[in-house]
TrEMBL record:
Transglutaminase-like domain segment(s): 173-242
UniProt-listed PANTHER family: BLR5614 PROTEIN-RELATED, SLL1233 PROTEIN
SUPFAM superfamilies reported for this sequence: Cysteine proteinases (SSF54001)
Designated name of the protein: Transglutaminase family protein
InterPro entries: Bac_transglu_N, Papain-like_cys_pep_sf, Transglutaminase-like
A Pfam short name: Bact_transglu_N
Length: 287
């Protein structure tokens, strides 16, 4: 078990005073058997009214409502957690799902819903052809198949940090041959959904004390990865950026069907079109 302090500071700079519309924050670490939240504080400047709610996926969502105009917005979250995720987890998969293909129960399929169907266009079948190549036998070992896809992405795609907004589609990532962590996570999720697996995107933090893990230039950063639902074992973590499986070094904050649903900070302002100057993000995860 490791105790960690997470500091996440987002600053928006404007060229002149603007009116801030309500902002949505997903910054509270998602508690589980492996993660215990010891304390959390959110500091906002200018002052705002903060309220909490849970979304349909069980994520903790904070909403900010502002009362004054400003030329700068600072949102800082400070969280203390205990992380107890093993490096080499063992998963107790139900006998019915040990080999692929398998069928989810009617209840599981109904609950997974859109999480088990590809969400993005693949008109030419490029993604389907790419992921189908990993299915070498019928039937095949389910966990081995998912590991191969997770491990194989970096054999096709080069990891590159990308500061611009948005996420590449899986087909774009395959065609370009490079992508950031969110691009690789989305490629993995859409690929396994193409095979019928229930999968979701996860956003959170990467704890990188050795500074050897991809996706982080320092001791910690925001990060994106994936989870796949397997009967018996539940949601299993896959991080294609680091070819890893399980929650070691990963601090989940939000899960969702699409990367847009799990962004840390979303909001708008009212002002002239050239009012926005730039944004800075600082993250530190230390033990």
């Amino acid at each position: 078990m490791v105790r960690l302090n997470i500091r996440h500071r987002t600053t928006y700079h404007y060229n002149r005073n603007v009116s801030l519309r309500p902002h949505r924050l997903m910054l509270r670490p998602r508690e589980s058997r492996e993660l215990r939240l010891l304390g959390m504080e959110i500091i906002v400047n200018p002052d705002a009214v903060l309220t909490w709610a849970q979304d349909v996926a069980g994520n903790s969502v904070a909403s900010l409502t502002f009362r004054s105009m400003t030329n700068q917005l600072v949102i800082e979250s400070i969280a203390d957690i205990e992380l107890d995720a093993v490096v080499w987890p063992v998963f107790d998969i139900s006998a019915s799902a040990i080999f692929y293909p398998f069928h989810y129960t009617d209840d599981d399929q109904a609950d997974l819903g859109l999480l088990a169907s590809p969400r993005l266009a693949d008109a030419a079948g490029k993604l389907r052809a790419w992921v189908s190549a990993f299915v070498r036998t019928d039937p095949t070992d389910t966990l081995a198949l998912l590991k191969d896809i997770n491990f194989g992405i970096l054999s096709w795609i080069s990891y590159q940090e990308r500061d611009d907004e948005g996420t590449q589609s899986p087909v774009e990532t395959l065609e370009r041959g490079w992508g950031a962590c969110r691009d690789l996570a989305l490629l993995f999720v859409e690929a396994v959904r193409t095979l019928g697996f229930g999968a979701r995107i996860v956003s959170g933090y990467l704890h990188n004390p050795s500074q050897e893990i991809k996706g982080s230039a320092g001791a910690g950063t925001t990060h994106a990865w994936a989870e796949v639902y397997l009967p018996g074992a539940g949601w299993i973590t896959f991080d294609p950026t680091n070819r890893s499986m399980g929650g070691a070094n990963l601090i989940p904050v939000a899960v969702g069907r699409d990367i847009r649903q799990v962004m840390p900070v979303i909001g708008e302002f009212i002002g002239l079109s050239d009012a926005f100057s730039h944004m800075t993000v600082e993250v530190c995860v230390i033990g």
